[in-house]
Specification:
mainly alpha
C-alpha cells in the first residue's frame, strides 16, 4: 500500500473517532440531565391552536 493511502486512511479514521467521541459526550450529557431531550429548533413559532383544515382539490 502506498504511504499516502495509509496516511489518508488514518486521517479518515481519526475524524470518524472524533465524531463518535462528540456524539458520546452529547449522549452522556443528556443522561446526566435525566435524559431530557431539548425540543428541536425548527425556526417556526407555534400559535398554540390547530392549523386550519386543508381543502382537497378533488372536492372543489
Amino acid at each position: 500500500m502506498h504511504w499516502g493511502l495509509v496516511v489518508a486512511d488514518a486521517e479518515r479514521q481519526a475524524a470518524r473517532d472524533a465524531a463518535t467521541a462528540d456524539t458520546l459526550r452529547e449522549i452522556v450529557g443528556l443522561l446526566g440531565r435525566g435524559g431530557e431531550v431539548p425540543p428541536a429548533k425548527t425556526g417556526r413559532k407555534t400559535t398554540g391552536r390547530p392549523a386550519p383544515a386543508r381543502k382537497s382539490s378533488a372536492t372543489q
